[in-house]
């Protein structure tokens, strides 16, 4: 049996699979296919491989000669030259697709249905669609999700091959050999659990997609160890709605997982987490978890707090997970234990704040409350690694579907000024305080060109983008001295 997994990348509230983050869907599918069809000929392609043939007839441009790096064909696998033959010969093509949390990506562009469908519709083999696109997909906030005619797929199934059931996936370790077909370095997204133990937020699809369940410590570590054996050195325990809620908030299990990652992958270079519910941080043993994260993870780590709004009226109407006072207290705890800088020049562990505009009950007071609380953080010397601001994307079946884009349209003219005020008055001074001019950041990987500027970043969760004057060899790892601050990034000069 000839099978091709076509990874068009995924981005959800609960997990990231946009390169260089290697998501769970293609690995789980690979694992399950190996179990069901041990003799199957499996191949892995990215959407970049297809674009290369669609845009350049399969010929790779000379990157050094590009004025601006073409990030639509940046992540080419070893199979890229034979991509079209592989797809046309495949008896089964599994398309992994879907963006639910619109974002900006330095060196990748996720595929969307309108792009992918024309590329795969004429393929002769059976086609299956899996991933978040089953519920719709959206690369931009402030609108309803995009849908399309999916009749070319013989199955459109969130649970295809039972990859949503841990009993079927097992440790997923047998999916690790997918990495051998990549040809480039990645950070592996490791899933600790599914679903949300709160599960009420008006905009979120997680309660519709998954019931609450957790992987065992042994399963996660087995997968990590197998990926490590394939050469992976960067890991993110990111495929969950709240890392502190792992195994129902079992502190012993959380510490065992973190310690076990270090033991299973002794020479790892990156170990980070992602989503965190502030309520869990301020719970009785939240400080114990925080200290363990600082101890076992690598610097530059970020706890993404899904605050969404500091306006209590919006919090109540959208049944958000936390209230401003709790988010403030959790921010203080992380600053107390994680603000000190580590060997790579970044603070060990800081919160990141997520803010969504366009939610139900939004008014002018919403932005005023957001600014009030963010200025309090700033005035009290608390650090935030980053503030993510976006407009809500409206998906069917969620609480936001009731009102659609009403509040987005109502306050659309104000959104960009609100956003810019946060960037100018909060983001910039926070960044200047965290990384002053002259500060050295280590192990910066140079990724893309834009004219006479090279952009790079460290590995990890929400790494800071650094612009460096001149065109330097891509892929090179350097140390950089901070020279200037932009609103959400910095400029620097190479010192080693």
TL;DR?
Helices cover 32% and strands 23% of the residues.
What is the CATH topology of one domain? OB fold (Dihydrolipoamide Acetyltransferase, E2P)
Residue runs with pLDDT of under 50 for 5 or more positions: none
Give the terminus-to-terminus CA distance: 50 Å
User: Hey, roughly how much beta strand do the residues contain?
Assistant: 15-25%
Mean pLDDT over all positions: 92
CATH homolog superfamily of one domain = Nucleic acid-binding proteins
Count of helical regions: 16
Which properties best describe this structure?
496 residues, alpha/beta, OB fold (Dihydrolipoamide Acetyltransferase, E2P), six-stranded mixed beta sheet, five-stranded mixed β-barrel, globular
Describe it.
The chain is of the alpha/beta class. It has a domain at 438-494: Beta Barrel (OB fold (Dihydrolipoamide Acetyltransferase, E2P)), CATH 2.40.50. The protein has helices spanning 24-36, 47-56, 83-89, 113-120, 166-169, 206-209, 217-229, 246-249, 251-264, 278-281, 286-296, 312-317, 324-338, 364-379, 406-410, 412-434, and strands at 2-12, 15-17, 21-22, 41-46, 92-99, 126-130, 155-156, 187-191, 193-194, 213-214, 234-239, 270-273, 275-276, 301-308, 349-357, 386-391, 440-450, 453-457, 466-469, 477-485, 490-494. The strands form five sheets. Strands 1, 2, 4, 5, 6 and 7 form a six-stranded mixed β-sheet that branches. The chain has a five-stranded mixed beta barrel with strand order 17-18-19-21-20. Strands 3-8-11-12 form a four-stranded parallel β-sheet. Helix 7 packs parallel to helix 9 (251-264), helix 9 (251-264) runs parallel beside helix 11 (286-296) and helix 11 (286-296) crosses helix 13 (324-338). The radius of gyration is 22 Å and the shape is globular.
